[in-house]
Amino acid sequence: MGEFRTETGPENTFNFAQRLMTSQNFTELFREGMGLIEETASYLDGPGRKQSKALGPAASLAYATESMRLTTRLMQLASWLLLQRAVNDGEIVQAEAQSEKNKIRVDNATKEMQNPAWNDLPEQLRSLIETSFKLQRRIKHVNNMLKEEMLREQAANSSNPVGDQLSQISAAFK
Question: What InterPro entries does the record point to (predicted)?
Answer without folding.
Answer: AraC-like_sf, DUF1465
